[in-house]
């Protein structure tokens, strides 16, 4: 009866592998990456040696071909050390998966060997200055000329922009709306590709975020993923997994802060006793743990549904993303409060997680859009 609610032995091994990697290669250095805005490329490449750059890329293409639950376990474990780094690796995985799942044999052969090892790192380019939640309104154009597309436009809020070598980009090849969108793989060194200034962000300091600018960029037709007009469908399928991963990053960050709050309140004394001995503290910690566990198990169920391609997978991914990211931020906020004034200092990790997790309710679809997805599914005739 209980087996269906527990992880398998293989999943526990994957989780433990990710936890050990995080403890050795991420947690001890994450505060410095944040403070000095360091992009830890060497650490990210080390994660690729464990297969974490190609989690759901097929074995034929060099990946480890795991499911979405296994991916969530990995992202959750790495976010315990640094949500920004874990989320960055998730984005690379989304781009690699899209090429492997929908690309031609030629395209896969040219890109995946280097993406699997992270010799080249990939960004995912959907959002634009004028189209965020309304992604189907994107304007970046790709005009067909012979055996090339001529690409013009701007992508906004792109993680890895300027650092990464590969940009899996949604472009407009046809009429307005989702059916006019296609997907192209664009290289950093193609003439006409440039980047805006590094954005000055509240959090996620361990990864660069810039605009990607396309000015008459010639992209071979052979770099198209799938057929013309299929890009929006690919993007939405990718977002189901991306939403699970960003939810998992919130769970990992929140778990770290809950653990930090438990340790702090057991050590800190006020009014002659440990803070942890006050009933109010115990009630707060109990609520934090309960809510975090509830969000975790909904996300795990949603991940299993996405892996199984269940009919309700998109609704469950949206519910899980909304609950996990809202809960994660709430747990971290209460952990900061339990630390008092010390929680506001950079000497403690809580404020970094508070900043890093805030964006999770915005990206991969805002939590308001998640509610729209769920509500429409529930009321569809």
UniProtKB/TrEMBL annotation:
Residues 8-119 form the Acyl-CoA dehydrogenase/oxidase N-terminal domain. Pathway: Amino-acid degradation; L-valine degradation. One of its GO terms (biological process) is branched-chain amino acid catabolic process. Keywords: Branched-chain amino acid catabolism, FAD, Flavoprotein, Oxidoreductase. Residues 229-378 form the Acyl-CoA dehydrogenase/oxidase C-terminal domain. Its cofactor is FAD. GO terms for molecular function: acryloyl-CoA reductase (NADH) activity; acyl-CoA dehydrogenase activity; flavin adenine dinucleotide binding. It comes from the Bacteria. This is Acryloyl-CoA reductase (NADH). The lineage of its organism: Bacteria, Pseudomonadati, Pseudomonadota, Alphaproteobacteria, Sphingomonadales. The gene is acrC_5.
């Amino acid at each position: 009866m209980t087996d269906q609610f527990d992880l398998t032995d293989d999943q526990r091994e994957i989780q433990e592998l990710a936890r050990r990697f995080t403890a050795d290669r991420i947690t001890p250095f994450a505060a410095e990456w944040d403070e000095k805005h360091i992009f830890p490329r060497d650490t990210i490449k080390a994660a690729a040696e464990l297969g974490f750059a190609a989690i759901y890329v097929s074995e034929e293409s060099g990946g480890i071909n795991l499911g979405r639950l296994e991916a969530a376990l990995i992202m959750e474990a790495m976010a315990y050390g640094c949500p920004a780094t874990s989320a960055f690796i998730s984005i690379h995985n989304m781009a690699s998966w899209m090429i492997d799942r929908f690309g031609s044999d030629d395209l896969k052969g040219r890109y995946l060997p280097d993406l699997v090892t992270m010799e080249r790192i990939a960004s995912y380019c959907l959002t634009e200055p004028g189209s965020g939640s309304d992604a189907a309104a994107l304007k970046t154009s790709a005009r067909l000329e012979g055996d090339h597309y001529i690409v013009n436009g701007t992508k906004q809020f792109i993680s890895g922009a300027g650092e990464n070598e590969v940009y899996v980009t949604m472009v407009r090849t046809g009429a307005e709306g989702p059916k006019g969108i296609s997907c192209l793989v664009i290289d950093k060194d193609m003439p006409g590709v440039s980047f805006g200034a590094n954005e000055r962000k509240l959090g996620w300091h361990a990864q660069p975020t810039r605009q990607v600018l396309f000015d008459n960029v010639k992209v071979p037709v052979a770099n198209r993923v799938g057929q013309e007009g299929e890009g929006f469908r690919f993007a939405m399928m990718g977002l189901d997994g991306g939403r699970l991963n960003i939810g998992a990053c919130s769970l990992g960050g929140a778990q770290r802060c809950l653990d930090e709050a438990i340790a702090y309140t057991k050590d800190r004394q006020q009014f002659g006793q440990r803070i942890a001995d006050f009933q109010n503290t115990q009630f707060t910690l109990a609520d934090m743990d309960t809510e975090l566990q509830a969000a975790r198990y909904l996300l795990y169920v949603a991940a299993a549904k996405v892996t199984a391609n269940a009919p309700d997978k998109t609704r469950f991914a949206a519910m899980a993303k909304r609950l996990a990211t809202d809960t994660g931020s709430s747990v971290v906020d209460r952990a900061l409060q339990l630390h008092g004034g010390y929680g506001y200092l950079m000497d403690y990790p809580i404020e970094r997680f508070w900043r890093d997790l805030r964006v999770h309710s915005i990206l991969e679809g805002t939590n308001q859009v998640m509610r729209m997805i769920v509500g429409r599914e529930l009321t569809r005739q």
